[in-house]
Amino acid sequence: MAMDVIAERAGVSKATIYRRWASKEALVLEALRRAINPLDDADLGSVRADLTTYLGNLAERMATGNMADVLPHLIEWSVHDPQLRAQLDDYVAHRRRPLVAILQRGVERGEIRDDVELDTMVDAFVGPFIYRKLLTGAPIGAGFVDDLLDLLIPTITA
């Protein structure tokens, strides 16, 4: 989408938009940040239940949400724009927190070994979603979430 179209739809000038956002890419990232709420880290009493809910919601968003469609473009743009890269890194860090919290609760309850590197596990849980969305186009649904949990949970449980 061109900046003139964005300005027209917003009822402002392009100059007004550029005063607030340095680039179209930064505007897109900010719009996504505001439009897509972080996933909930609800405590359902077990790490399996918490992960099933969290990853099920992620699967739904990846299948139907705007972020999944825009993500490849943001990654590409961020390679050439250090400021956008920093904003994207901040966005991703913010989105990782609920999953880290779920895993940390699992450690505290004794369900997950205390020697597990939580950031690595976040990558292991989320990475397959991104791989399927960006590279293979394979379905991301409840069956995929169950298969992923069946594969990964035994590697981290106490």
* Coarse shape: elongated
What's the helix-strand series? HHHHHHHH
What's the gyration radius in Å? Answer: 18 Å
* Unreliable spans: none
Total domains: 2
**Oligomer type:** single chain
**Overall strand count:** 0
- Under CATH, the topology of the largest domain is which? Tetracycline Repressor, domain 2
Kindly report the average pLDDT value.
85
Q: Distance between the terminal alpha carbons, to the nearest Å?
A: 49 Å
The CATH C-level class name of the largest domain: Mainly Alpha
Would you identify the CATH architecture of the largest domain? Orthogonal Bundle
Structure report:
This protein has 158 residues and is an all-alpha fold. It folds into two domains: 1-35, no CATH class; 38-156, Tetracycline Repressor, domain 2 (Orthogonal Bundle), CATH 1.10.357.10. The chain is built from eight helices and no strands. The protein is elongated, with a radius of gyration of 18 Å.
